[in-house]
Amino acid sequence: MQVRNMLSAGLGAPYKRPHSIPQGCRFSMPFISLLLRAWVITMRQCHVKPRILADDLSVTADGPHTVDWIYTAVQHAQHLLATIGALAQPSKSMLWGLTPELRKELSQLTWVAPADQVLADNHRNQRPDHPPMQVVHYKIAVSTSFRTLGSHFSTDPKLIGTTLTRRMMST
Q: Torsions phi, psi of 11, nearest 5?
C-alpha cells in the first residue's frame, strides 16, 4: 500500500507500508472489523468471549475448562492472525486469572507456533538457520494488575494500582 503523511503545508512524499493500515484512515476500523469477524466466530466456538478495541484483542472464559478453552482460543487466534499476515508478539500479550490457582495453571502453559509467525526482538524469525516450518515454544506472562481502556485492572486481593504509583514515582 502506498501512503503519504498529511501535514498542514500539504502532502508528504509517498512511501510503501506493506504490512499495516495508516492511522487515521477512515477505512481502517471497518477493514479491521471485517478481517477479525472470522476471529470472533472462531473464539465463540472455543467457548470464550471475544472482545476487540481497535487492534487490541481480548478473550475471557469462565467455567470448568477455563484453562483448556483459553489455550485453544489463543492457539487458534495465533493461527488466524498469521493467516492474515499479523504476527503474535508474546511480550505484548498477557494472561490473567481471578484465583491464585488459575494464575498458576496459566503460568505453566507453553505456547507453540511456527517460528515465522512469532515476533521476537521486533523482527520476524526468518533467518537462514531458522527455517519457517520450525516451531518455537514460548510463555505468556500472567499479570495480577494492568492498565486497560484507560483504567487500572487488578486481580490481586491487595488492589494495588501500579499505573498511578509508577506515574507518581516518575515525577
A: -95, 140
